[in-house]
Amino acid sequence: MSQIQLHKIDLNLLSTFEALIEEGSVAGAADRLHLTPSAVSHALGRMRSQFDDPLFVRVGGKMQPTPRALVLAGEMAPILRSLRRALEPAEPFDPATTDRVFRIGLHSMPAFIAQVTAQIGDAAPGAMVEWVRIKPTNQNDLVDGLIDLLHVGGPAHLVDGIQSVDLAPITFFSFVRRGHPAARSWSAEMAGRYRYLQVAVEDTGGTPIEKEHRVMNRPRTLGGKVHDFPLVGPVLAQTDLITTQPSIAMQEIWKRYDLQPLEPVAAPKDFPMRFAWSARSATDPGNVWLRETVIAAYRDHEADVTAQMQAVAIPLGA
């Protein structure tokens, strides 16, 4: 027997076949499908020709399926169910009832992470938020669906399959312990007398702060490195080191360890920031809700923190 040409199969024929199997008559199938009996009879004729089998024969006033039709019915039932599920409109996303796990790639920003975790928990009590460390494979993980939302700093190229939204450029401040000698007469010359603390969050061969110091010909000497932002506070509190960091990363730290913000000697003025997500998830209602929630909170948080620091930062003298 020749092989069925699947591309020639009309899906309407499958629905008609299903109705004939379940109703047992042309009239019943026509009523169920809102068709005329002649239309159903015509569809049955096409199926008989396609499958080279009568499929249904009249026995005692009722259409009885042939053995071939029974085999087809058993094979097609789960396929038609799956097809209906696939073609049904997506269920609306309801934060109040969801149990999804949301994964967000972000540098360690304790105050912001705590705020957003609480905010999502209030709106979506059954959801879980997993904060993922920033690492070189994050973009691939985003494309593969292992991360829902990624905070991207700097002019990094985004791989294919990623969409993003621009954020306000980061504002940088320098920080020293309260009572640091440099804070009494803050200037580029004074800053050059002290060594710096660097946060080595990625092994990228240099930070934007170092690059800006080179561009401005204001060399700095490193006196220490830590692997994450929360370690900056206790180190500065016990030393005369200086550090220059993004405002949002220091929101909790500068207050807890009573650090003094300073206008930086050298820092990028237009360091770009973005939130990114997989293009495959661009219209997913849950992902849209997550993006809107996190991005709005980030923008408000970053603006508030920067304003607080600007109000007390010591300006750079001559």
TrEMBL record:
Residues 9-66 form the HTH lysR-type domain. Gene3D superfamilies: Periplasmic binding protein-like II, Winged helix-like DNA-binding domain superfamily/Winged helix DNA-binding domain. Keywords: DNA-binding, Transcription, Transcription regulation. InterPro entries: LysR-type_TF, LysR_HTH_N, WH-like_DNA-bd_sf, WH_DNA-bd_sf. The keyword Hydrolase does not apply. PANTHER family: HTH-TYPE TRANSCRIPTIONAL REGULATOR LEUO-RELATED, TRANSCRIPTIONAL REGULATORY PROTEIN. Belongs to the LysR transcriptional regulatory family. This is LysR family transcriptional regulator.
